[in-house]
Amino acid sequence: MFRQGIHRCMRLYSPSLELSKGILNRNGAAYIRTCYSSQKRLAATSVSNADTLKKPDMFCYQCEQTKSRRGCVTVGVCGKSAQVAALQDLLMYVIKGLAVHANRAINMGIYSSEACDTFVKKAMFSTLTNVNFDQDRFPEYIRQAVEYRDEFRAPLIAAYTKRGEPLCEALTQGPAVWKPEKGYDDMEYLENEGHKVGVLEDQQIYGPDINGVRYMTLYGIKGLSAYACHAEALGENDPWVSKFIYRALDFLVSAKKAERFDLGLNLQMALDVGATNLRVMELLDKGHRRILGTPTPTDVCTTPKEGKCILVSGHDLVDLHTLLKSTEGTGINVYTHGEMMPAHMYPKLNAFKSLAGHFGGAWQNQKIDFATFPGPVLASTNCVIEPLRSYRDRLYTLNDTGIHGVRHLDLHNPTQMKQLLEHANSLSGFDSKTAKKYDDRHLVVGFGREVIAQHADTVINAVKSGDLQRICVIGGCDGSEHKRNYFTNLAKSLPSQTLILTMGCAKYRLNTINFGTLGNTGIPRLLDMGQCNDSYGAIMVAKTLADILDTDINSLPLSISLSWFEQKAVAVLLSLLSLGVKNIKLGPIMPAFLTPGVREALDEKFGIVPVDIRHPDEDMDDMFHN
Ligand code: SF4
Ligand code: SF4
Predict the structure, then answer these.
(1) To 10 degrees, the CA torsion angle through 80, 82, 83, 86?
(2) Which atom, in ligand 1's list, is nearest to the CA of 64?
């Protein structure tokens, strides 16, 4: 059996995270120890999804919608071209080379570059699912990564020389020394270079099991980088996070061979990613509240107002804030889309009269929503997809988001902001007749951790009286697949003595259903806590309840059904696992990068299992009785 081959005793210690200590172990020891019995090489224990695919045009298995549950091999289901896939692979490769330098320079006390730290996170963000499809942007990312790497190389070599030591092997080979022999303008060359350094090449070395765990680490780092970019936009940064990123990437490249091939150590590194992501989400939570105020339950208007308009999609609330400042008093109405809807729960955003309401649903509906919106549309971050011709010239990308041929905008550039407002004024906007076509859905957002904490006594009393038998977290990402109806059906199947916490765009599966209130407490049974960026809040709620009940998180009447889609969700999942949270149900399908053997090991250690998409009622039953 797979698990019998794992010998490594995994240990987690995250000294900077008091939170971990509180949740994991009431006595304060934040250790996870998992000891497995014997040591065998594991790589051959499961059939490689990738091995069966000989020399495909590309290979990517980083998201849930990956082709045939194995990997996208000609073009991404998301629309990512083989060329962009190769350029992203090359970018990740050179960033690993940069990290090899940065980690050593940090250890020698000669590293300091906030600009590089920010660049690395942004570049990682650009490679997430549904972020950047513009092949023309990637040579510049690659060039910058090489330049930052080489900036650190000279002082590093000098430091080794001064010590009288030869350069370590990792600095003399692979991504540490990759050079753009034909420059950055030769796309075919860059693409060919990218084809040499992707998932399949690594799998030849590590085998599917260990490679999958290593890529889980990488995808988790991508996710935490995305969250860190959001936090930085709010002025929140912790240099320790970047140091961890370099250390983790360096581990993937240059740890001793025995360590790189050690499944236990690789799993531990993935958990460390999760622990670091907790810190990042804490920063994000803090930044949102400091800049935008404390979330408050808020009715969101979904009937458009007559007038000129701009739609903002993605997650970046700072972008929205910037836009609202510029549109206030201009007569241009700003609407949120997708994951921007939680903007309405922040008092300092809601105070703008130009924030007119919400338009449309989750990201996968954008081809309908954007096509029917009579104004410019901004994609601040993910999830954006190749636009239809009907709205292509109205779409703008921001930050590290990109679509080839679609205008890219810097909202902090006054000239570009002016052009955007002129564009909005040149379009029809909503007339009174069109505006009335849209139903006024009753959507309420804003049940942040503070609101729930205020009602903690009521919740605890309801638990004690039996009025509340279970708190179910049903949240995360959404997507277009029919099987995601599972999450709707699961929520519908829950008895009335259940509270449902949701966040992320998975909320759109639930937020038009009337779940009523919990007994006579007046608390709505469905509580929308915000974006996927607000998952930290759900963890804090669990911690608060556990503290009050003098127990740990796994002893709470709490079940988690996580709807995952992309790499932010991987980071959140790893955060939960780093806290020792058990019995998470994950769906709609399990990640393709986790082989059956690794899933078995994760099930054994954490009780993490796939949702049963055909039988949500049985999963519900399981939640209540296991
Ligand atoms: S991001 Fe997802 S859909 Fe896109 S190429 Fe990768 S696995 Fe396929
Ligand atoms: S929650 Fe995930 S799937 Fe939904 S918009 Fe955000 S990144 Fe995309």
Answers:
(1) 100
(2) 2
Classified as helix, coil or strand, 313 is strand
Number of Cβ within a 10 Å radius of residue 604: 15
- In the numeric block, which tokens belong to residue 214? 């290593």
| HEC profile of 41-88 | CCHHHCCCCCCCCCCCCCCECCCCCCHHHCCECCCCCCCCCHHHHHHH
| Number of C-beta neighbours around residue 7 at 10 A | 14
Instruction: Give the Å distance between the CA of 61 and the centre of ligand 1.
Output: 6
Residue 65, CB-side half-sphere exposure with 13 Å CA sphere: 19
Q: What is the pLDDT of residue 474?
A: 97
d(CA 617, CA 53): 37
Q: 172 vs 57, 97, 178, 486, CA distance in Å?
A: 30, 10, 10, 51
User: pLDDT by residue (tens digit) across 118-142?
Assistant: 999 999 999 999 999 999 999 999 9
**Consecutive H or E run containing 395:** strand 395-398
Cα-based torsion angle of the residue sequence 167, 168, 170, 175 in order, rounded to the nearest 10 degrees: -10
Ligand 1 lined by 287 (C-beta under 6 Å): no
339 within ligand 2 shell (Cβ under 6 A): yes
pLDDT tens digit sequence for 3-41? 443 434 343 333 233 333 333 332 222 222 222 222 333
Q: How far apart are the CA of 382 and the centre of ligand 2, in A?
A: 6
Q: Taking the model in full, what pTM does it have?
A: 0.92
Ligand 2 centre and the CA of 320: distance in Å? 17
Query: Which of the ligands is closest to the CA of residue 530?
Result: 2
CA of 498 to the centre of ligand 2 (A): 25
CB burial of residue 75 (10 Å; 0-12, 13-18, 19+)? middle
Pocket lining: 565 vs ligand 2, CB cutoff 6 Å: yes
